[in-house]
């Protein structure tokens, strides 16, 4: 198993945020964590990447216990993260942002930079543009690209579709599938449970700091409780049909990033 989270407990002061979560991610998988706001999804990712300390339990990566390993050493070990809210450096150029993702690596990173440009042609086009002047969709591409510059074995993605127009959401999820196809394991936290379950191999449902369900993602698409709580009551077949309709109608749908720049982003395909 590439990544194992074993009975972890995490506190914010006296408040228990995680209450004994156990999650495993095998090499080559896309695994998703779904659940309501406050369920502990982001805290789980921060604990894996070393941004939150454990109260008890263990995090194991590639056969090693990394529970007490500093965050920067976890990056070197092979854990990359694109955080919630993107977290780009607004005053830096696109290329400077990407190179920050490789700050701890001593070897030449031109190969990784070329691969990121291949996945995200828009970043190559705008390499000299300040990150803070880009659209929301472009900034999300930049956040993912920066994480990939660390050459991670596992990529932690926190809410990659947040605030994006529907066409951009489809594009980001297609890119996640392509990243996985190229060999990077993915642990995905996502409010858009429909999209997440459609691309994941396995999934965990979190509620108030605990795992309440764990199953193949396809099974959860047709789980009555999951449908009622997170999928609007639709079945897996309904969701697939709805996704096709959404793709066809996305040009006429507005969203938080429905700007001329975002429209340009929506037309940008992935290299597959």
From TrEMBL:
Domain annotation ABC transporter: ranges: 3-233
Transmembrane segments: none
Domain of life: Bacteria
One Pfam match: ABC_tran
GO terms assigned for molecular function: ATP binding; ATP hydrolysis activity; branched-chain amino acid transmembrane transporter activity
Family annotation (InterPro entries): AAA+_ATPase (IPR003593), ABC_branched_ATPase_LivF/BraG (IPR030660), ABC_transporter-like_ATP-bd (IPR003439), ABC_transporter-like_CS (IPR017871), BCAA_Transport_ATP-bd_LivF (IPR052156), P-loop_NTPase (IPR027417)
Sequence ranges of Acidic residues compositional bias: 249-272
Family membership noted in the UniProt record: Belongs to the ABC transporter superfamily.
Protein name listed in UniProt: ABC transporter ATP-binding protein
């Amino acid at each position: 198993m590439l990544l194992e989270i074993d009975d972890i407990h995490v506190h914010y002061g006296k408040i228990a945020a995680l209450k004994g979560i156990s999650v495993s991610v095998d090499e080559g998988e896309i695994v998703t964590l779904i659940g309501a706001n406050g369920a502990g999804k982001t805290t789980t990712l921060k604990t894996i990447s070393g941004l939150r300390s454990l109260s008890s339990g263990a995090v194991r990566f590639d056969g090693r216990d990394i529970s007490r390993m500093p965050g920067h050493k976890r990056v070197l070990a092979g854990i990359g993260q694109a955080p919630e809210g993107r977290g780009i450096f607004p005053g830096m150029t696109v290329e400077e942002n990407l190179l920050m993702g490789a700050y701890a690596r001593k070897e030449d990173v031109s190969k990784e930079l070329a691969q990121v440009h291949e996945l995200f042609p828009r970043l190559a086009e705008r390499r000299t543009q300040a990150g803070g002047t880009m659209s929301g969709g472009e900034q999300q591409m930049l956040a993912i690209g920066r994480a990939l510059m660390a050459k991670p074995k596992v990529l932690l993605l926190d809410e990659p579709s947040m605030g994006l127009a529907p066409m951009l959401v489809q594009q980001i999820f297609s890119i996640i599938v392509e990243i996985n196809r190229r060999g990077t394991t993915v642990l995905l936290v996502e409010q858009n449970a429909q999209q997440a379950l459609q691309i994941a191999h396995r999934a965990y449902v979190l509620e108030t700091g605990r795992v309440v369900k764990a199953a193949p993602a396809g099974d959860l698409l047709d789980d009555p409780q999951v449908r009622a709580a997170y999928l609007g009551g639709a079945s897996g077949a309904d969701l697939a049909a709805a996704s096709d309709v959404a793709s066809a109608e996305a040009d006429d749908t507005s969203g938080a990033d429905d700007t001329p720049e975002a429209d340009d982003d929506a037309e940008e395909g992935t290299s597959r």
